[in-house]
Amino acid sequence: MTDFVTTRLAECLARYQSAIPGLADLGKQLSSLNSAISRFPRPLGDRERGESRDEPPSPQPSPIKGEGAEALDALIDLYEQCYPLLEKAMWSAEPDFSPLLACYQALFREQEALIQRRGDDDRHHFILSIPVADRPPHLRACLESIYQVCTLFNYGGNASGIWDKIKVVVAEDSRDENNIRRHIDLVEEYRQKGLQVFHFGLAEQYELLQSLPQPQRERLGNLLTTQPREKFHRKGQAANRNLSYLKFLQLTEDKDRTLYYMVDSDQHFCVNRRTESGEEAVYALNYFHTIDKIFRATDTLMLTGKLVGDPPVSPSVMAANFLDDVTAFFSRLAALTGDQACQFHGAQGPLPGEAAYHDLAGLFGFKKKPETFPYTCRLEGAHDHGACLTVFARQLNAFFFGEHLTRKTWFSYGSGFTQLAPARTVYPGNYIVNYAGLKYIIPFGHLRLRMSGPTAGRLIAAEIKARFASFNMPNLHRRTTEAGLDDDFRPGVELNGEGQSIDLSDEFERQFFGDLMLFSTEELVTQADVNQPFAQNVIEAVITRKEAELLALYQQKHEATVDKNRQLHGLVFNAGHWWLRSPELALALRQIQTFIDNIDRNFGEHSLAWRQIQSAEHRAQRKQQIVEALMNYRAERDAWDSLF
């Protein structure tokens, strides 16, 4: 009998066929295939061919041929038919999630063993890029998530002790030498675990950049940086990502069978699910398997997944709705007592909808409802409201690093993983291209503006239409780690006074002008051919209109934020509530006051960013930069395209 092991598949079908529609039919197909396979002669093993018993068996068995190959193909396809049925059930409220997930993962590992037994595996290789700047805790979490996906799903197999089809490039951009050493240590740690990880250091990046002919290098200065050797750090995520493309070209062995996956260090290859006890991160998506199928079955050039977890936007566009939710928490807390058992647990109302965290969601076509979302306490075990308030206050200032306590995005299975939709936004922490798609980069990195992914997405969508697609395989986004705020670098956010004073004026300024560039570009591509240079007068006319619209919206948001912060201060400190009479809450109250002060510092009348946005002179300088960047886009793209 041919040695095709399908034990896990048989167990799964037997266990769940009565609960999950469609599995019973697959069980009949498996029985029929096993009956047919049992009549095939068993192929000779290496030792039966006369190979010495003293030599280890070959890690790659000879490919199956003839009727055996046809039967094996049919078996492998049976797993493909099974996965969507299990996924739909797993993300419903019916079967117990954890056992079904373990079964689902085991099926992929068993299918991979069959694919390796068949031989001639022509699926895609993946090269991942992780740009990282002074973020060892984030890098560790990201690498661990990749390792877990490889271990649990085993895409491509690891007969030689490494996952042959997966390579990871850690693109260094740190300023701190200690952090660089920590990153290198992490690379070595995960190499020992079987991941093919490469540290793409600053010196190597610089030398690779210098290897380009000088005229070409000068034309690519805005894309690949012009920083000197002695200051070749913190070049920005866009420049660092683009430099990693040059490393891709070095590592590519078969450009027709290689995909390039861009990841941010604060992204994890898992998703979140809501449980009665809070949020649970689960490795329930086989990213590499699904992405390979999409690129083999369609003419996609660029594929982007979204993000779940912490919002992928700046706190500068979340302050108003966050204040609403913080105020709602204290209003509810005021109606309770401090020594009462905590009431902030379990599912408390509907989940936030898409872009619910964004104060200006209407700009992106989302209808924002005037509602608040409840805080879910993270404490376990018996505790009272005083303990709940202590933890809540401790978490508040993480908001300025992008963590939203009440409006996370949650994973939803929807219509499955492989269904594509036209995309208009590149999520820099989760997009994939094939070799031809390497041309479609995220430009304008030299401006250091936010919203670079959505801006690039509008340009790319205008050029390649549906070949730029979105799919339902998000990464989990976590702004902060267990290491805390002190062991993390976030561009545009400054900590002063032992973490008490937080200044995000740089990020806030880059957000406003990033919005101006995004919405100007969005209108521009409807008026002009993206394959031709944009005319200066057309760009300037569009920017003038968008500037007036955004100034009005930002003014409304500014006034609302100032008013809501004032109301929150009054509710917490001036209304005589029970927490003011509790000495053990003194630290929590100081943390809440620090949060309110930081809101005023960053969004009040005297905030630096707000003064810059209001300054006609400053806006004129920024607008000129944007005009020049858009005018030069086509020429820079032509220079970039010549690399490929």
The total count of strands amounts to 15
- How much is the radius of gyration in Å? 27 Å
| Low-confidence runs of at least 5 consecutive residues | 43-58
Mean pLDDT: 90
Question: How can the largest sheet be summarized?
Answer: 8 strands, mixed
| Number of separate structural domains | 3
Quickly count the helices.
Answer: 19
- Structural class comes to alpha/beta
- Strand order within the widest beta sheet: 3-2-1-4-11-8-12-10
Helix content bin? 40-55%
Net shape:
globular
Q: What portion of residues belong to β-strands?
A: 5-15%
Would you mind describing this structure in some detail?
The chain has an eight-stranded mixed sheet, sandwiched between helices. It has a three-stranded mixed sheet with strand order 5-13-9. A two-stranded antiparallel ribbon has the order 6-7. The chain is an alpha/beta fold and 644 residues long. The longest helix is centred in the C-terminal third of the chain and has 38 residues. Strand 6 and strand 7 form a beta hairpin. The protein folds into three domains: 112 residues; 143 residues, no CATH class; 229 residues, no CATH class. 47% of the residues lie in helices and 10% in strands. About 2% of the residues have low confidence.
